[in-house]
Design goal:
mainly alpha, single chain
Length: 281
């Protein structure tokens, strides 16, 4: 099996396990510790696969270490760093807790500022340095001296795979802190970025789940690397529709006796009829 396909399957399984962990109990530290253990276990499986795998070409190796391995590392860093943050969260007044998160947020901003060049490279989806950054046998230039880079196991990642993952994890931590501050401030979003869309999904939830998996299968987001959880969360916000147990719903879709793509077939038929009857205005 292609390492890209294997990674996708392994990551989707990991996300389902992480979703279960988030529903178990109210102890945040236990949840974070359990989540980190799940990620660590998945990464060990992936490393074993890499050890016996020969990449088809440089393009496949670049894709893997730029987009796929960095996702696993991002989750590992995210849960590890978040565990540290929540371990140090003060048990005090609301003001103390808010000040604590605001201080952590300043640290996040400082880190991203120091990584601005690489952050821009990632944000703008540049690729001109990919052969240097994401091939294991390349001599990647180290931007800043760091003892960590010299102890890095380059069989399983590159310097910039880790750097990409750390930036992604830091962005996720930033979102987490903003959400915590929003709760503490009684706001929907302290950044003022939450927009109330006028569109509300009024069709059955199962149709939305079918659409989510269809978009995942078509690989239309992030060069096909976006996972189901990310797509589902985005469409939930966009269409003001909460989607729970989407994996279970998908399993029900899979065992349909007739068409397994009822909604997508309906959209196709309606679209063809619409094009025949109008000019798309």
């Amino acid at each position: 099996m292609s390492i890209l396909n294997y990674s996708n399957q392994l990551y989707e399984n990991l996300q389902r396990e992480l979703a279960v962990v988030k529903l178990e109990g109210d102890n945040r530290l236990i949840q974070l510790e359990s989540a980190f253990s799940l990620v660590d276990k998945s990464m060990e499986e992936l490393k074993r696969y890499i050890s016996e795998y020969k990449f088809e070409d440089e393009e496949q190796e670049i894709l893997f270490f730029k987009y796929y391995m960095s996702k696993f590392l991002k989750d590992s860093i995210f849960y590890s760093e978040l565990f540290g943050i929540e371990s140090n969260r003060p048990v005090g007044s609301l003001k103390d807790i808010k000040q604590f998160y605001e201080k952590e947020l300043r640290g996040v901003r400082d880190f991203l500022s120091n990584q601005q060049a690489l952050y821009n490279y990632m944000l703008l989806k540049k690729s001109h340095y990919d052969r240097t950054y994401f091939l294991r046998n390349s001599q990647s230039p180290i931007l800043k001296p760091n003892l960590f880079w010299h102890t890095l196991d380059t069989r399983f990642c590159t310097v910039y795979t880790v750097s990409f993952a750390r930036i992604k994890a830091t962005l996720a931590i930033s979102d987490y802190i903003y959400e915590e501050l929003a709760v503490l401030n009684g706001e929907s979003d302290p950044r003022g970025l939450t927009k109330k869309f006028n569109l509300t999904w009024t069709a059955p939830k199962v149709h939305l789940v079918e659409l989510i998996y269809g978009l995942k299968a078509a690989g239309v987001f992030n060069h096909g690397t976006a996972d189901i959880r990310e797509i589902a969360a985005t469409l939930e916000i966009l269409f003001n529709k909460e989607v729970k147990d989407y994996y279970r719903t998908f399993q029900e879709i899979r065992i349909r006796k007739k068409s397994r793509t009822v909604f997508l077939d309906l959209v196709k038929d309606k679209m063809e009829g619409y094009m025949e009857e109008s000019e798309g205005v």
